[in-house]
Structures are given as structure tokens and as C-alpha cells.
Specification:
77 residues, mainly alpha, 434 Repressor (Amino-terminal Domain), 5 helices
């Protein structure tokens, strides 16, 4: 199955929507600010890290995958 979700882009877009900085997120998930740019490039992310990001930003990024899973029969996967 090809990658359908680019989670890094979703995180980046949400961070910008919230008008927050990379440094803000880095401080909340306890990583170096440069790491945030690396996260934005990922199309796959560790679930523990995604949990921390979701909590920090107040967004359930797992919901993206849950919705996709529910739609898979419709997509013919």
C-alpha cells in the first residue's frame, strides 16, 4: 500500500494554522527545534512521538489514520 498520509505535512500545516513556531512545539515535546523540521519531512512517524505531538497541539492526529482505515473498503484496499 502506498503512503496516503504525509503526517509531517499535516503537523506542519496545523502548527502554522495555530500560528505557533517550531520552537514552541520543540519545547513541548522536548526535542531540539531542528528536529521539528525533520518531523515535517516524515511521511511515517513513531506512535509515541505522534502521541506527544497530538497532546501538545491539542489535535488527534491519529484520527486521520482512523478515518482512513474506515474508508479503506470504499477505496478498494
Amino acid at each position: 500500500m502506498k503512503d496516503i498520509v504525509h503526517i509531517g505535512s499535516l503537523i506542519q500545516n496545523e502548527l502554522r494554522r495555530q500560528d505557533r513556531t517550531n520552537r514552541w512545539l520543540a519545547e513541548r515535546i522536548n526535542v531540539h527545534p531542528r528536529t521539528i523540521n525533520k518531523i515535517f519531512q516524515k511521511n511515517v512517524i513513531d506512535t509515541q512521538q505522534l502521541l506527544h505531538i497530538s497532546y501538545a497541539m491539542g489535535v488527534d492526529f491519529f484520527e486521520v489514520y482512523s478515518k482512513l482505515l474506515k474508508d479503506m473498503p470504499k477505496l478498494g484496499m
